[in-house]
Design brief:
It contains three helices and five strands. With about 90 residues, it is α+β, with helices and mostly antiparallel strands. The protein has two domains: about 40 residues; about 50 residues, IHF-like DNA-binding proteins (HU Protein, Chain A). Helix 1 crosses helix 2. The model has no long low-confidence stretch (mean pLDDT about 95).
């Protein structure tokens, strides 16, 4: 499902216009990003938990050439499905 499909679904389910549904979707995504930046964790109880984890700089190896390549420090996001999401899919 693409963002457009999800916006259309939200608009149909809620009676919002597509423009309002798009703004709501964008606000939710921006809220998750803001939460991860500020507290490193966002939980939508029963649905999903997003966690930001700092990864240290390291050295990787190019499998084609065997050359060592430096990898800069970064922040990675992990996503864990909640119980309601798991139950809905199984």
């Amino acid at each position: 499902m693409s963002k457009t499909d999800l916006v259309n679904y939200i608009a149909e389910e809620t009676g919002l216009t597509k423009a309002d549904a798009t703004r709501a979707m964008d606000a939710m995504v921006n809220g998750v990003v803001k939460g991860l930046k500020e507290t490193k964790k966002v939980t939508l109880t029963g649905f999903v938990t997003f966690t930001a984890k700092d990864k240290a700089a390291t050295t990787a190896r190019n499998p084609k050439t065997g050359e060592s390549v430096p990898v800069a420090a970064r922040t990675a996001v992990t996503i864990k499905a909640g119980s309601k999401l798991k139950d809905a899919l199984n």
